[in-house]
Amino acid sequence: MTNPSAHSTELDRMFQHGRVKYIKVRRLCEYLGISKSAFYHWLDEGKIPYVTRTPGNHIRITREIAERIESDLLQGELFGDRVDSRQLSLFPDDDPA
């Protein structure tokens, strides 16, 4: 199982320890190991209704939103099945098994 503090550390890096307020969808998808098309599909289905949009309608993700999406993904809220947290590892070759 992936160490939760490792995910927190990676989120700290992504948000530059609070200096960056938003990240782009692409960066979040890379972190979670999901495709952008899956993200937009879930957004269209209303499964991710809590994003921030710019005046130009671009999506930006706050750390709070990133954590909520990660939690929903782990709990299977986005596609109905629980996800093995090892699938979210940024370094899949570091499998402790």
Q: What would your notes on this structure say?
A:
- The protein has 97 residues and is mainly α.
- The protein has four helices and three strands.
- A hairpin with a 5-residue loop joins strand 2 and strand 3 (59-61).
List keywords for this structure.
single chain, 97 residues, mainly alpha, 4 helices, 41% helix, 7% strand, globular
User: What fraction, in percent, of the residue positions are helical?
Assistant: 40-55%
The N- and C-terminal alpha carbons lie at a distance of 9 Å
The strand count comes to 3
Largest sheet: 3 strands, antiparallel
Question: Over all CA atoms, what is the radius of gyration?
Answer: 13 Å
Number of helices: 4
Strands of the biggest beta sheet: in what spatial order? Answer: 1-3-2
Strand/helix succession: HEHHEEH
Label the structural class.
mainly alpha
Uncertain segments are: 81-85, 88-92
Cα shape: globular
Note the beta-strand portion.
Answer: 5-15%
Q: Would you tell me the overall average pLDDT?
A: 75
